[in-house]
Each structure stands twice: as structure tokens, then as C-alpha cells.
Design brief:
The protein has 170 residues and is an all-alpha fold. The chain has one domain: Ferritin. It has 4 helices and no strands. Helix 1 packs antiparallel against helix 2 and helix 3 runs antiparallel to helix 4.
């Protein structure tokens, strides 16, 4: 990881990460709505809303305008997508709320791990304090998602069986 050297740099990267999370959760909600999976769509919309609050908080804390563009710096994180972004290839149109929550939990935990590593390795006190605060916020999201997971049933092994599969004709 190419660690930020200033608080402004960290917050720009955090802003990019949160905006990516909002965009992906919204995209996933849209995908689920297309497949009439409204319960999972609602979960993803709620996650997008939480991430949107983080975007607004970063903008307010930094005194930045809403249209501030946060450039993504190479090496800010080790993967092509931000740590908090749910991989699109892990989606299934018949997924249940349990699956959606597992994806959200993994994304939120990656964000915790990202900020934890930064807090442990930076030599800049302002960056450490900000990373610790963001880690705590992401830990709250992890706890929230775990609470939701406790309320939904784990689907059976036949959850992906489609009684009306698409038919392709070449």
C-alpha cells in the first residue's frame, strides 16, 4: 500500500473509496430490482445510504465542495477496486438477503482492515487519528451488518435453482 503522506491525501482517498462504495451498492440494488429481488435491493440501497453519509461527512470535515473530485492514487490499496467495494462478479440474480449481507460484511471488514493497517503503519499522527476514527466507523458498519445477518435465514443448498431459467436460441 502506498500510504498517504498528509491528512488531505488520506481524506481524498477515503472520499474516493466511499464514493466507489456508494456507486457499487447502488449498482447492485439496481441489478436486484431488475430481477425483482426487492428485498435484497432494499438492503443494498440502505448500504449505499450509509456510505453516502460518509461521503457527506468527509466533505464537511474537510470543507470541500460537493463536486470535489478525489483522484485515485496508484497503490493507495492493493486491489483494482477500493477495499469497501463489493466485487460485481460475486452477484447472483437469485441471491437471498443472507448472501447480500455476506458480501456487505466482507466489504466492510476489508475497509476496517485497510484503515487498521494504515493506523498501525503511518508515522503521521493526524493520519493515524483519522485512520483510527474511520476504522471505528467501519467497525460500526460491520456490527450493523452482523446484526442484520442474525435476523435473516441462511438459504438452503438449492437457493440458486431457477424454476424458469432463461432460454437462449442461437
Amino acid at each position: 500500500m502506498n500510504a498517504p503522506q498528509s491528512l488531505e491525501d488520506l481524506m481524498a482517498q477515503a472520499l474516493a473509496m466511499e464514493r466507489e462504495a456508494v456507486a457499487r451498492y447502488t449498482e447492485l440494488a439496481d441489478m436486484m430490482e431488475v430481477h425483482n429481488n426487492t428485498e435484497v435491493a432494499a438492503l443494498f440501497r440502505q448500504m449505499a445510504e450509509y456510505e453516502g453519509h460518509h461521503v457527506a461527512q468527509i466533505l464537511a470535515d474537510m470543507g470541500w465542495a460537493e463536486d470535489t473530485t478525489a483522484p485515485r492514487r496508484a497503490g493507495a490499496w492493493a486491489t483494482p477496486e477500493a477495499p469497501e467495494t463489493v466485487p460485481i462478479d460475486e452477484m447472483h440474480y437469485l441471491m437471498h438477503p443472507w448472501h447480500a449481507l455476506q458480501l456487505a460484511l466482507a466489504a466492510e471488514q476489508r475497509a476496517v482492515d485497510f484503515f487498521d493497517a494504515l493506523a498501525r503503519t503511518t508515522t503521521v499522527n493526524a493520519i493515524r487519528r483519522a485512520a483510527e476514527q474511520m476504522r471505528a466507523e467501519e467497525q460500526e458498519h460491520v456490527a450493523l451488518v452482523r446484526g442484520w445477518l442474525d435476523k435473516v435465514a441462511r438459504p438452503g443448498p438449492d437457493w440458486a435453482a431457477d424454476p424458469d431459467p432463461a432460454r437462449y436460441v442461437d
